[in-house]
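As a warm-up, study this chain.
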Amino acid sequence: MLTRCLLSTTALALAVPALAQDIQPVADTVTEVANDLRGVTFAADGKIYVSGFRGDDEVETTSIVGRFNADGTPDTGFGEDGFVELDLAPGRVEESMAVVELSGGDVVAAVNAIDEDGGESVYLLRFDSTGAQVTGDAWGGESGAVEVVFGWANADNGSFPGVEAPPQDSAWDLDVDASGDVEKLVVNGYGAAGPETGRTDNDRYVARLLASDGSNDPDFNGGMPFTYQSAQEFSDGGRRATVEPDGAILSAGYTNLGDTLRNHVILIRLNPDGTLDEGFGGFIEPASSGEAVGLTPRPGVAIFNPFVADGGFAECYAAVPLSDGSYVTTGYGAATVEGAPSTLGFQTTEAQDVVTFRVAAGGLDTSWGNNGLQAIQSEGAGQPTAEDRGRMALALPGDRTVQVGRYGGVPAAFVLDASGQLDAGVSDDGIIELPHDSVDSQFFGAALSDDGSRIALTTNANVAGARLVVLDVQS
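Now compare it with the structure written out below.
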């Protein structure tokens, strides 16, 4: 494995205006070290870890892990000048969308890498607090890469049906489970259905590993990753996950149920032992969606797309818990099919809309938003485009949520109040637009500091570099 350290970073400190608005940008940093930094988390000391890739993701990339100070400047005490570059898959594509800090100060990044046979595998890389990679008996052997096996291990790829297209595994999230005496790592994503199924479509996977050595946790789902198939041979996608204080896991994602029904949100809640939580979900909304494709309600699983009434669709990239145990999701979709009016009180969709829902244990919370759902739309708002997307969500005190992505083609954060409406106390309309001259990518990653005073936002792929914006939360 080749390790290199580079730096070309410009940090801009922003003064907080003396306004009543309580969420303000205070730093905006662009780095050419990376072209993508979708992984982001706050360290215990308030510094910010990031992970992503450098290069062209259609040709060749290398993995990047970095650390910033709380003010958005690179922390030169990590790696060399704040960044470490690793070439896990020489000449091929690799990416990281998640990074975490362990209690002892080490940092772990989840990397998706194209293997020599053309498949894709998930690996966990570990570094100490100085940026030195942990390898050998301590972690991952000589390469320092621990393979996270969903359905197929690399060693078994030769037996995969249709081996000319080997299994493709992808980790979208990595979280720390600190609920017990032993620290654990939770990986959320998707990959090819396991050998016992005889199928080649993708299933949802949630794996829990011991943070000590990266081995499967024997106390989780019998020592194996949890796996979920919706119906038929639909490709089930996992996105972000939330590990709750007691060790329960909420896995967010979505599945396309066919050309007519389109994408539906699928939330899965697991007990700490990896079994489905029978007190959550057990519904499909509308029920006709399930009936049409042979998908039946299952305790622990919530499936919904109310926009299907108008030909629309809904994706889910993250879900965050609120004070009463309900969840607010974020993602993108369409309130209507192109050119059709909405029967739910929204505008006719011209391009993707931010779609968000509040979900209680047994169904949508109809007291929130517009009967339990909300669409944020830039149609007719004079924006550069009508494209709106939600990629990550955070929960603030008072059951407000911050959702990040893009508004009308502009990188933005959306602040919703406890009732599910845009918070007019923030940027007048609840939307914090953060355009940039060179890096116009949407915000894809977001993290909240342990004390709740700072939010870090990071961007996805851009030839001009990657961006970190720090927001100050004043109350």
